Amino acid sequence: MTPTGWLRLSVLCAGLLTGAALPAETVRLRSGEHVGFTRIALVLGRESAWRVGRIEGGFGLELDRRDITIDLSGAFDLIPRDRIRNLEHDPTSGLLRIATDCTCHAKAFEAGRNVIVVDIVDGPPPVPDRFNTALFPSVPAPEPSAARPPAAPGTELAEGALPPLHSDALRRRYDRQITLPGARVRAAEPPQPRQPDGGEAPVTDPFREAAERRRIAEIEAELLKQLARAGAQGMVEPNPRYGGIEGEVAQPDASTPPSNHPGENVDAITGVDRAAPDAAPPPEDARGACLDPRHFDFLISEPETAPHDMISAARQALLQEFDAPSSQAAEALARVYLYLGFGAEARQVVEGYLASSDLAPLYLALAAGVDDMPGLAGQGLTGQMGCPGQASFWALLVGPVPAAIAPQTERDIAATASDLPLHLRQLLVPRLAQRLLSRGHEELAATLRDALSRADGAHGTGFQMLQAALAERGDVAAGGHGSPSGESTRAAEAILEGVAETNRAEAPEALVELIRLANAAQRPLPPDRIAHAEALIFEHRGTALARTLMVGLAPALARDGAFAEAFAKLDEAATIASEVTSDPRQAALSETALLLARNASDAVFLRSMFDPARAGLGAEVSAPAAFALASRLLSLGFPDQALAQSESLPREPEYRLMRVRALMALGRNERALASLAGLQGAESDALRGELLARLGEHARAHTLSRVAGDEEAARRAAWASGDAEAIRESGSESEAGFTEATRPETAPIAPGRPSLSGAQELLEQIRQRRGAIETLLEEKSTATGAVTPALDRAETSPGA
Predict the structure, then answer these.
(1) Which of 628, 661, 660, 657 is nearest to 645 (CA)?
(2) pLDDT digit string (tens) for 418-449?
(3) What is the annotated signal peptide range for this record (predicted)?
(4) Angstrom distance (rounded) from CA 780 to CA 787
(5) Which distant-in-sequence residues (6+ apart) come within 8 Å of 470 by Cβ?
(6) pLDDT by residue (tens digit) across 460-515?
(7) Which of 51, 583, 596, 713 has the most CB atoms around it within 10 Å of its CB?
(8) pLDDT digits (tens, 9 = 90+) for 559-577
(9) pLDDT tens, 162-203?
(10) Distance between first and last Cα of the chain
(11) pTM for the complete prediction?
């Protein structure tokens, strides 16, 4: 069917499906005050044609639908009456009167679907437009000599009613002078004066034909949708009287009205639709700040013109007579460069010829997204995350990725990735998917990957890097094993090895990832990979890439025992400025220091730690690494150095106890005892008891040692205290026997009257006391390794 046939069929469907009255709708007017202008907005539940122009006393907004009632109750709650003096709505004519007394002009646009916005802006209009001309031009009175009233003038589309890329061609192709039955007669607006040609070449836009084909396809799709819905509800039946020869459909004649966009000009509703509940009103969000989705349409079109012809045609029209640049041609050239993926060239065109254009911020932001330079994006896409259409896709390329993304926004992003031409898809989709992965949006990243993998052919090393990242997370389609695991990591490494062996731009990044995975798995690097990294460090010396490689290579060298080379790499990396917020060098230095403390030999460890360059190493590394260094120094007999390397440690119990031992090794017992204040537990009680014993407080030391469960320390403290009760509780058997034997109460006492039995009893008491002393001396000498001389039993035997 030809486009004209489709257009006639659209009018037939509109007549069948809109014959009954539509449900009325009440719309609340929203208002807001801004610097330099006052804004009012209407959020409609269904589509309606509209127009804005000057009327007596101000401006008028006319809605084509007459079933709309505008609620003005809160119109002036948020705005003063300096620009807009009053607002009145006539439901019969559909006219909203905006009364003004200021020297102002109007701007009107649609902000999203069914959202009509009118701004009353200070000052006269910069250029004449349809919003600041008469809304109802005066109609000349008919001449008296006329035999009959003249026929109603034909309906014409106002200038600007169609999108800029399609208006002229579609108007020439489809518009006709027609008269609709029962239509209100309006005089046609005067034609806008055209600028003189001046001999310049016509401005060509390579996306025009592709957009026209897309628009016709949309018309056909919308008609089929409406016909299918009406047929399913029994509202449409084929009429055999319109069948032509061999079943062909009769072609429309000149009276068939035009239809330039079925989604806006055809409002189909049936009895089933009317019986359904009203749709929920649109949410009150910030969609008023969203850009028109049509600004992005050229990025998903598919012109048939060759790229070099697109560039040459746009550049040829750039300069007019006397080398005056054409802003329209400059916009066309910028769109060509952006479509082809030339961000820097598009940026030059915008900065050179479109600095004052309303589209300049958007085009600069798109150029930054194409070239992966978010710092140059400016404000063109700020706040566009969550907006309908392609806006969210491009906003994520140059802005931060939020932690949560709405389901509808995810669908818009995935649809944009699928709609992009293949060359832009291969350039942008892997990059955006990697950004999404970094924020945990794995499902959306995999969806974007699928949008690219559905196309035939290889998709470049950027796509392979994305596959490796997904495989590491367990993505089965990328080669993972369902979850992060050793098998998934090996699958990612296999992909990265293939990329690292190429000479593509992603090869160094692939090598960085291979080094990262090896360090995470505590595996040594193969010698050839270390040599590859060294070569790239030399080739890119002084750059961020060289710094990243040196930082990643240091722990791998330390794992191989090359600690001097590892610290040298980290020292060299410190001389190169880093632009990232969290410097990976800190983590690499901590890991290298930890490996030094755990794996290095005593000679290598001490050589490294007594290097003047490493004097403050403990303050530069993480707390676990500093603790490991200090503990190793203390175990090797260097308490001073252990204290110096642990100065920056937090006041955690484990770290404080290590410092207490270092102070004890230096004989600073009072300071050590004070450092134990507030610490609880068996270990701290044992150290506290030992320190009290050193300070001569043996009784307290005995008590704390018993509480800590250190029986040997308690025995020593009890014996040193001389307390018989403590010795009986904690002392050895010999110590307890000696204490009992030497008590004053048990001292041998000579009988009052000399007698043989009394003398023998005295000798027995002396023998018992001497035996206890001998047993104790023998025990102590055995413990210390000394030799106790044997006592002459003959000298002490009774009766000797």
Answers:
(1) 628
(2) 999 999 999 999 999 999 999 999 999 999 99
(3) 1-23
(4) 10
(5) 437, 442, 445, 446, 449, 477, 478, 480
(6) 889 999 999 999 998 888 888 888 888 999 999 999 999 998 888 889 999 999 99
(7) 596
(8) 999 999 999 999 999 998 8
(9) 444 444 443 333 333 433 344 444 444 444 444 444 444 455
(10) 145
(11) 0.56
Compute CA 348 distance to the chain's CA centroid, rounded to the nearest angstrom. Answer: 29
- Secondary structure letter of residue 540 according to DSSP: T
The span from the CA of 24 to the CA of 756, in Å, is 137
CB 480 within 8 A of CB 470: yes
Please give the Cα distance from 471 to 493 (Å, whole number): 9
Q: Tell me if residue 47 falls in helix, strand or coil.
A: coil
Q: Give the strand pairing for 68-71 and 58-63.
A: unpaired
Q: What does each C-alpha distance from 536 to 529, 539, 550, 552, 769 come to in angstroms?
A: 11, 5, 10, 13, 85
- Asked if residue 47 lies in contact with residue 114, where contact means CB atoms within 8 angstroms, the answer is yes
Q: Is there a contact between 487 and 474 (Cβ–Cβ < 8 Å)? A: no
Q: Which distant-in-sequence residues (6+ apart) come within 8 Å of 315 by Cβ?
A: 333
Closest among 706, 768, 766 to 737, alpha carbons compared: 768
Residue 124: count other Cβ atoms within 10 Å of its Cβ: 10
Tokens of 441: 């949006």
Which range has the worst mean pLDDT, 40-54, 126-140, 516-530? 126-140
- Would you say the C-alpha torsion 573, 576, 580, 586 has a positive or negative sign? positive
Contact 100/59 with Cβ under 8 angstroms? yes
Measured CA to CA in angstroms, residue 10 lies from 163, 217, 259, 323 at distances of 20, 14, 7, 47
CB 109 within 8 A of CB 115: no
* Dihedral sign (CA 155, 157, 158, 159): negative
List the structure tokens of 210: 């592709």
**Do strands 25-28 and 68-71 pair parallel, antiparallel, or not at all (unpaired)?**
parallel
Q: Can you tell me which residue has the tokens 């300071």? A: 671
Closest CA to 318 of 330, 308, 307: 330
Instruction: List the one residue out of 416, 413, 418 whose CA is nearest residue 452.
Output: 418
Identify whether the C-beta of residue 319 lies closer than 8 Å to the C-beta of residue 353: no
- The one-letter amino acid code at 384 reads Q
Its sign, for the CA torsion 267, 273, 278, 281, is negative
Distances (CA, A) of 321 to 200, 324, 329: 6, 6, 13
CA distance 37 to 29: 17
* Structure tokens, 357: 């254009």
Alpha-carbon distance 792 to 440, whole Å? 88
Q: Is 571 left (phi over 0), alpha (psi -120 to 50) or beta?
A: alpha
String of DSSP letters for 101-128? -SSEEEEEEE-STTEEEEEEEESS-SS-
Alpha helices in 421-562 (DSSP H): 422-438, 442-453, 460-472, 486-500, 507-520, 527-539, 544-559
Q: How far apart are CA 553 and CA 353, in angstroms?
A: 48
Who's near 137: CB < 8 A, 6+ residues apart? 187, 189, 190
CB-based contact 633:609 (threshold 8 Å): yes
Kindly tell me the burial class for residue 472, based on how many C-beta atoms sit within 10 Å of its own C-beta (0-12, 13-18, 19 or more). Answer: buried
634-649 confidence digits (pLDDT tens): 999 999 999 999 988 9
Q: Are strands 115-122 and 37-43 parallel, antiparallel or unpaired?
A: antiparallel
